[in-house]
Amino acid sequence: MILSKRPDIERFLGRPDPAIRAALIYGRDIGVVRDRGHQLAAKLVPNPDDPFDVALLTEQDLADDGGRLEGELAAQSLMGGRRLVRLRMTAEKPAADKLAAEALDRHAKGELNPDAFFLIEAGNLGRESALRKIAEKANGAAAIPCYEDEPGDVARLVRETLARDQVSLNADALQVFVQRMPKERGVARQEIERLALYL
Questions:
Q1: How far apart are CA 160 and CA 167, in angstroms?
Q2: Which candidate among 20, 46, 100, 165 keeps its CA 20 to 30 Å from the CA of 140?
Q3: pTM for this model (two decimals)
Q4: Long-range pairs for 151-156 at CB < 8 Å and ≥24 separation?
Q5: Over the stretch 115-171, which tens digit does the pLDDT of each residue have?
Q6: Element housing 77 (H / E)
Q7: E-strand spans in 41-89?
Q8: Please, which residues have CB within 8 angstroms of residue 18's CB and are 6 or more apart in sequence?
Q9: What is residue 143's three-state secondary structure?
Q10: If we measure between CA atoms, which residue out of 136, 140, 181 comes closest to residue 158?
């Protein structure tokens, strides 16, 4: 299943469909990918940093031990809650892409631990990526492509971030600030947090 429209993505990230066992979040702007990954993880498990319920893997882990990913997806939570397996891929490496695609295919079909959730955060994946193809076609998976933020997205991010610190900008200041923001969300978020601290 592909989720490409903002309302569909926001709905899924805010309230994941119980029939979905896996999500692939990918795109050129890794800051947007990480933000959406954090947002989804927070809805899936009480504490996304809990090592008893969450396994965090990278493509290097796949290179070191090809069977580890499926082993993590088949494992039960040590504390009895829902298990979350997060895979972070920074580059499109054919071997890692293939291993992740095979694990995703099996997990989406319910062959591993059906109560676990498989969250993959990846960089820009081309159309030939096996991982992307599986995520787009599997009934138990969601593929969420991430694009560069539009000015409206940046303005909303600024307002939401500043509101957490109970500060704000007037419309003119917000417009000037948004126009000068870098395109990459991770860097933009740092600038917003710096502004919040200043205010």
A1: 10
A2: 46
A3: 0.79
A4: 151/178, 151/179, 154/178, 154/181, 154/188
A5: 899 999 999 888 889 999 999 999 999 999 987 777 777 888 888 888 888 888 898
A6: none
A7: 54-58, 84-89
A8: none
A9: strand
A10: 181
Structure tokens at 195: 């502004």
Report the distance separating Cα 41 and Cα 13, nearest Å.
Answer: 9
Task: Find tokens 């702007």 and name the residue.
Answer: 29
User: 181 in the Ramachandran plot: left (φ > 0), alpha (ψ -120 to 50) or beta?
Assistant: beta
Give me 63's structure tokens.
Answer: 């290179």
Place of tokens 């890692």: 96
**Could you give the CA distance from residue 147 to residue 76 in angstroms, rounded to a whole number?**
34
Q: 11-47 pLDDT, tens per residue? A: 999 999 999 999 999 998 888 899 899 999 999 999 9
> Encoding tokens for residue 36?
């959406």
Rounded alpha-carbon distances, angstroms, from residue 112 to 13, 109, 115, 122: 23, 8, 9, 22
